[in-house]
Design brief:
With 254 residues, the protein is mostly helical. It has helices at 12-17, 22-35, 40-50, 74-82, 91-100, 109-116, 118-150, 162-168, 172-183, 193-210, 213-231, 245-252, and strands spanning 55-58, 61-64, 66-67, 71-72.
Length: 254
């Protein structure tokens, strides 16, 4: 993690003249910007835009920022970068961003996109639709199944794989086998969250291939509605994009 605060700019010029790994350079520039008066959130976004490392292992923690070569989890990268600036970023604002999705500054979607750059912002949208909305869709279907079970006269329950069968057309075991055949990655009983997000994004792409356009649109509306309900408690939550069915159709042809 980061060392104690230095005077603004102290040591920066000397370090900048050295050949630094891309990750370390992005961190150094971010800290320098904050220490010389740039708001920490803007400095963070600039660092995200400069970042070039798709994944890292630090200690026993895996940071997989780019999923399937297409979906960019910018908040995970923000967590990594801010871990190097705990001494110069207000803890309350940092926690609000990482745990509640609250931005400390009002930044329009277009400005956010410029900070990230076109390629990263497009990958960010892939993550929003292909992971966050997909997870919300899965939860919505699980809740539908729970309601159906509750209304059954004898209270018969279906097993947990029913959601996968309903959304993706196969039980979980078969989907895991297909995933292994497609990617070479075996999903065992205990799956880490980075790998589960990769699996979720893969499921999203399989759903787009399998479903007709009407079903894709219907499921997208259901996922978006569920995500909106989940976020209503935090009225000023920001994602860096306005998600809707029309935007989804433009991006994925649904």
């Amino acid at each position: 993690m980061a060392s104690s605060p230095q005077a603004p700019g102290a040591g920066y010029e000397e370090a900048a003249e050295e050949t630094l790994p891309a990750a370390e350079e992005a961190i150094l520039r971010m800290r320098h910007a904050i220490l010389t008066g740039t708001h920490w959130f803007e400095a963070l976004l600039e660092a995200v835009g400069r970042w070039r490392v798709p994944e890292e292992h630090i200690g026993d923690r895996e940071y997989r920022y780019l999923i399937g070569g297409e979906a960019f989890d910018w908040l995970l990268l923000a967590e990594r970068l801010l871990g190097e600036a705990l001494d110069i970023v207000p803890a309350r604002e940092l926690n609000a961003l990482l745990f509640e999705g609250r931005w400390p500054l009002e930044i329009e979607d277009e400005a956010f996109a410029r900070h990230l750059g076109a390629a990263k912002h497009s990958a960010h949208l892939n993550y929003l639709y292909g992971v966050l909305v997909e997870e919300a869709l899965q939860l919505a279907i699980e809740e539908d199944i729970h309601k159906e079970n509750r209304n059954r006269p004898w209270g018969q329950d279906r097993d947990d794989e029913t959601m996968f069968e309903r959304v993706y057309g196969k039980p979980l075991a078969e989907l895991k086998a297909d995933y292994f055949e497609a990617t070479g990655t075996m999903l065992r009983d205990r799956v880490g969250y980075p790998e589960w997000k990769a699996f979720t994004y893969w499921l999203f792409k399989q759903r787009l291939k399998r479903q007709d356009k009407a079903r894709v649109a219907s499921d997208t509306r259901k996922g978006l509605a569920q995500l909106t309900r989940m976020e209503l408690a935090i009225s000023d939550r920001r994602r860096g994009a306005s998600l809707d069915e029309a935007d989804f159709a433009r991006r994925f042809g649904g």
